[in-house]
Q: What sequence folds into this?
Protein backbone atom coordinates (compact mmCIF):
# COMPACT_ATOMS: atom_id res chain seq x y z
CA UNK A 1 0.00 0.00 0.00
CA UNK A 2 1.25 3.50 -0.78
CA UNK A 3 0.30 4.84 2.62
CA UNK A 4 -1.52 8.09 3.24
CA UNK A 5 -0.92 10.51 0.40
CA UNK A 6 -1.04 14.27 0.83
CA UNK A 7 -0.70 17.06 -1.68
CA UNK A 8 0.82 19.47 -2.11
CA UNK A 9 3.87 18.85 0.11
CA UNK A 10 4.63 22.54 0.29
CA UNK A 11 2.36 25.51 -0.27
CA UNK A 12 3.29 29.16 -0.14
CA UNK A 13 0.49 31.63 -0.55
CA UNK A 14 -0.36 35.22 0.19
CA UNK A 15 -2.71 36.32 2.91
CA UNK A 16 -6.30 36.33 1.73
CA UNK A 17 -5.88 33.55 -0.80
CA UNK A 18 -7.78 30.29 -0.72
CA UNK A 19 -5.76 27.18 0.12
CA UNK A 20 -6.85 23.60 -0.49
CA UNK A 21 -5.02 20.66 0.99
CA UNK A 22 -5.70 17.15 -0.23
CA UNK A 23 -5.52 13.72 1.30
CA UNK A 24 -5.93 10.15 0.11
CA UNK A 25 -6.25 7.73 3.04
CA UNK A 26 -5.13 4.12 3.06
CA UNK A 27 -7.59 1.95 1.18
CA UNK A 28 -10.03 0.25 3.53
CA UNK A 29 -9.54 2.65 6.41
CA UNK A 30 -12.80 4.06 7.74
CA UNK A 31 -11.45 6.94 9.83
CA UNK A 32 -9.68 10.04 8.55
CA UNK A 33 -8.14 12.78 10.65
CA UNK A 34 -6.80 16.25 9.91
CA UNK A 35 -4.15 17.66 12.28
CA UNK A 36 -2.18 20.88 12.45
CA UNK A 37 1.31 21.02 13.95
CA UNK A 38 3.08 24.16 15.11
CA UNK A 39 5.94 24.77 17.50
CA UNK A 40 3.72 26.77 19.83
CA UNK A 41 0.67 24.51 20.00
CA UNK A 42 2.02 21.09 19.10
CA UNK A 43 -0.19 18.63 17.24
CA UNK A 44 -3.84 19.64 17.23
CA UNK A 45 -6.75 17.58 15.94
CA UNK A 46 -8.85 19.73 13.64
CA UNK A 47 -11.55 17.31 12.48
CA UNK A 48 -12.13 13.63 11.91
CA UNK A 49 -14.44 11.59 9.71
CA UNK A 50 -15.90 8.11 10.05
CA UNK A 51 -17.16 6.51 6.85
CA UNK A 52 -16.95 9.90 5.14
CA UNK A 53 -19.13 11.61 7.75
CA UNK A 54 -17.64 14.39 9.94
CA UNK A 55 -17.79 13.24 13.55
CA UNK A 56 -15.97 15.91 15.52
CA UNK A 57 -14.98 19.30 14.14
CA UNK A 58 -14.50 20.99 17.48
CA UNK A 59 -10.85 21.58 16.70
CA UNK A 60 -11.51 23.61 13.57
CA UNK A 61 -10.26 27.04 14.59
CA UNK A 62 -12.61 29.29 12.67
CA UNK A 63 -15.21 29.43 9.95
CA UNK A 64 -12.38 30.08 7.55
CA UNK A 65 -11.57 26.37 7.81
CA UNK A 66 -13.70 23.71 6.18
CA UNK A 67 -13.18 20.03 5.44
CA UNK A 68 -14.96 17.58 3.20
CA UNK A 69 -14.78 13.90 2.44
CA UNK A 70 -16.83 13.25 -0.70
CA UNK A 71 -15.82 9.58 -0.84
CA UNK A 72 -13.76 6.99 0.99
CA UNK A 73 -10.58 7.78 -0.90
CA UNK A 74 -10.41 11.55 -0.83
CA UNK A 75 -10.62 14.45 1.60
CA UNK A 76 -9.89 18.15 1.42
CA UNK A 77 -9.12 20.81 3.98
CA UNK A 78 -9.80 24.31 2.77
CA UNK A 79 -8.78 27.64 4.28
CA UNK A 80 -10.50 30.70 2.91
CA UNK A 81 -9.23 33.36 3.34
CA UNK A 82 -5.82 32.32 4.60
CA UNK A 83 -3.91 34.32 7.24
CA UNK A 84 -0.25 34.27 8.32
CA UNK A 85 -1.18 32.55 11.60
CA UNK A 86 -2.40 29.56 9.57
CA UNK A 87 1.21 28.78 8.71
CA UNK A 88 1.86 25.27 9.99
CA UNK A 89 2.33 21.69 8.89
CA UNK A 90 -0.99 20.00 8.21
CA UNK A 91 -1.18 16.24 8.54
CA UNK A 92 -3.77 13.81 7.38
CA UNK A 93 -4.01 10.41 9.09
CA UNK A 94 -6.22 7.38 8.68
CA UNK A 95 -7.05 4.28 10.66
CA UNK A 96 -9.34 1.28 10.65
CA UNK A 97 -11.81 0.07 13.24
CA UNK A 98 -11.41 -3.55 12.09
CA UNK A 99 -8.45 -4.38 14.35
CA UNK A 100 -9.77 -2.57 17.40
CA UNK A 101 -6.36 -0.95 17.86
CA UNK A 102 -6.90 2.30 15.95
CA UNK A 103 -3.24 3.03 15.35
CA UNK A 104 -3.09 6.01 13.08
CA UNK A 105 -1.13 6.16 9.84
CA UNK A 106 0.10 9.63 9.01
CA UNK A 107 0.81 11.21 5.67
CA UNK A 108 3.99 13.21 5.07
CA UNK A 109 2.24 16.49 5.75
CA UNK A 110 1.74 19.73 3.87
CA UNK A 111 3.90 22.63 4.99
CA UNK A 112 1.81 25.77 4.55
CA UNK A 113 3.36 29.22 4.60
CA UNK A 114 1.07 32.23 4.40
CA UNK A 115 2.87 35.51 3.79
CA UNK B 1 -5.41 21.63 25.76
CA UNK B 2 -3.03 18.74 25.44
CA UNK B 3 -3.95 15.60 27.35
CA UNK B 4 -0.47 14.16 27.57
CA UNK B 5 2.70 15.93 28.57
CA UNK B 6 6.05 14.37 27.91
CA UNK B 7 9.06 14.80 30.10
CA UNK B 8 11.78 15.73 29.39
CA UNK B 9 11.08 17.97 26.43
CA UNK B 10 14.58 17.31 25.11
CA UNK B 11 17.07 14.52 25.74
CA UNK B 12 20.58 14.01 24.41
CA UNK B 13 22.41 10.72 24.92
CA UNK B 14 25.32 8.75 23.51
CA UNK B 15 24.73 5.87 21.15
CA UNK B 16 24.37 2.64 23.08
CA UNK B 17 22.80 4.27 26.13
CA UNK B 18 19.20 3.81 27.16
CA UNK B 19 16.66 6.61 26.71
CA UNK B 20 13.66 7.04 28.97
CA UNK B 21 10.77 9.36 28.23
CA UNK B 22 7.79 9.95 30.45
CA UNK B 23 4.22 10.93 29.74
CA UNK B 24 1.62 12.19 32.17
CA UNK B 25 -2.05 12.62 31.41
CA UNK B 26 -5.06 14.04 33.17
CA UNK B 27 -8.19 11.96 32.57
CA UNK B 28 -9.00 8.26 32.45
CA UNK B 29 -7.96 6.48 29.29
CA UNK B 30 -8.76 3.41 27.21
CA UNK B 31 -5.26 3.09 25.88
CA UNK B 32 -2.03 4.99 25.44
CA UNK B 33 0.09 4.99 22.32
CA UNK B 34 3.60 6.14 21.52
CA UNK B 35 4.54 7.61 18.17
CA UNK B 36 7.85 8.69 16.63
CA UNK B 37 8.34 11.62 14.28
CA UNK B 38 11.50 12.04 12.29
CA UNK B 39 12.33 15.56 11.20
CA UNK B 40 10.11 16.68 8.34
CA UNK B 41 8.02 13.53 8.38
CA UNK B 42 4.66 12.33 9.62
CA UNK B 43 4.24 10.41 12.85
CA UNK B 44 4.79 6.67 12.96
CA UNK B 45 3.02 4.42 15.45
CA UNK B 46 5.39 2.52 17.75
CA UNK B 47 3.39 0.72 20.41
CA UNK B 48 0.02 0.69 22.17
CA UNK B 49 -0.67 -0.26 25.76
CA UNK B 50 -4.19 -0.80 27.01
CA UNK B 51 -5.44 0.58 30.31
CA UNK B 52 -5.50 -2.90 31.88
CA UNK B 53 -1.87 -3.60 30.96
CA UNK B 54 1.14 -2.55 33.01
CA UNK B 55 4.03 -3.27 30.69
CA UNK B 56 4.60 -4.06 27.06
CA UNK B 57 7.66 -4.81 24.95
CA UNK B 58 8.40 -4.46 21.27
CA UNK B 59 11.96 -5.02 20.14
CA UNK B 60 14.12 -2.43 21.90
CA UNK B 61 11.05 -0.60 23.20
CA UNK B 62 9.54 -1.07 26.63
CA UNK B 63 6.43 0.80 27.70
CA UNK B 64 4.99 0.93 31.18
CA UNK B 65 1.66 2.31 32.29
CA UNK B 66 0.62 3.33 35.79
CA UNK B 67 -3.04 4.33 35.70
CA UNK B 68 -3.03 5.23 39.40
CA UNK B 69 -0.40 7.88 38.70
CA UNK B 70 -1.75 8.65 35.23
CA UNK B 71 1.68 8.20 33.73
CA UNK B 72 3.55 6.14 31.20
CA UNK B 73 7.18 5.71 30.27
CA UNK B 74 8.89 4.70 27.06
CA UNK B 75 12.31 3.10 27.33
CA UNK B 76 14.50 2.67 24.28
CA UNK B 77 17.39 0.34 25.02
CA UNK B 78 20.78 0.37 23.30
CA UNK B 79 19.95 3.54 21.40
CA UNK B 80 21.15 4.15 17.86
CA UNK B 81 21.71 7.34 15.90
CA UNK B 82 18.67 6.38 13.83
CA UNK B 83 16.52 6.72 16.98
CA UNK B 84 17.02 10.49 16.82
CA UNK B 85 13.49 11.83 16.52
CA UNK B 86 10.64 13.35 18.51
CA UNK B 87 8.52 10.96 20.52
CA UNK B 88 4.88 11.60 21.38
CA UNK B 89 2.43 9.89 23.66
CA UNK B 90 -1.21 9.83 22.63
CA UNK B 91 -4.17 8.95 24.79
CA UNK B 92 -7.57 7.62 23.82
CA UNK B 93 -10.18 8.62 26.35
CA UNK B 94 -13.39 7.07 27.55
CA UNK B 95 -15.21 8.55 24.56
CA UNK B 96 -13.75 5.97 22.23
CA UNK B 97 -10.60 4.44 20.83
CA UNK B 98 -10.46 6.37 17.60
CA UNK B 99 -9.86 9.90 18.82
CA UNK B 100 -6.50 10.42 20.49
CA UNK B 101 -4.89 13.48 22.02
CA UNK B 102 -1.17 13.97 21.51
CA UNK B 103 1.32 15.32 24.00
CA UNK B 104 3.91 17.95 23.25
CA UNK B 105 6.67 15.45 22.57
CA UNK B 106 10.20 14.65 23.68
CA UNK B 107 12.99 15.49 21.27
CA UNK B 108 15.61 12.75 21.47
CA UNK B 109 19.09 13.18 20.06
CA UNK B 110 21.37 10.15 19.94
CA UNK B 111 24.98 11.13 19.40
CA UNK B 112 27.07 8.61 17.43
A:
Amino acid sequence: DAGVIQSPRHEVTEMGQEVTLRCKPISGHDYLFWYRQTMMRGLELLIYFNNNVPIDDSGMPEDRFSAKMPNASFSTLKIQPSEPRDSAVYFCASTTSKTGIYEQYFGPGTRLTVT
Amino acid sequence: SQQGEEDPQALSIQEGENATMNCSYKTSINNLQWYRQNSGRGLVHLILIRSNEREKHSGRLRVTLDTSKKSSSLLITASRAADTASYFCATAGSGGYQKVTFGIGTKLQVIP
